[in-house]
Amino acid sequence: MTAAPELATPTLASPDLLRSVFRRHAAGVAVITARGPEGPVGFTATSLTSVSAEPPMLSFGIGLGASAWPAIARADHVGVHILGEHQQELAALFARSGADRFGAPTVWHDGPEGMPVLDGVQAWLVARVVTRVPAGDHRIVLAEVLLGDASGPGRPLLYHQGRFTALRD
Questions:
Q1: In the CATH scheme, what is the homologous superfamily, with its name and number, of domain 26-154?
Q2: Which PANTHER family does the protein's record reference (predicted)?
Q3: What's the CA gap between 37 and 54, in Å, rounded?
């Protein structure tokens, strides 16, 4: 059996290999928020996954070194926001280390369960954290959806090849 030319030079598993492969995987962009002891926290996530319909559950990953991790580690609830293609700057802001994510120009309000809810998103959910599963240098957070709104405007924002982008027709 001969390998296809493009598969002829496999690389041993490494963080760089994983990053290179997943740069080729287009992912939807979400912002996860929570209420911390110092106020609201949030981060941009491309690891959001629907887990179960009955009961409605989702998951996302967060790095142990993320500034939002201490609050997420103790949070009973999280806010989940699906960003639209018009929100590239918001996605970049919540991905930037040390940024004032909830200052101007971010528009948000206190939502159900005290969760920070971002305005103008395609959809948002509030979910109750069920568990946090160790996964290397990350934790996978499983949460049960309590309520939300899927009536926001626009088309989804995507992350591909290391940048935010939009769907093409």
A1: Electron Transport, Fmn-binding Protein; Chain A (2.30.110.10)
A2: FLAVIN REDUCTASE, FMN REDUCTASE (NADH) RUTF
A3: 32
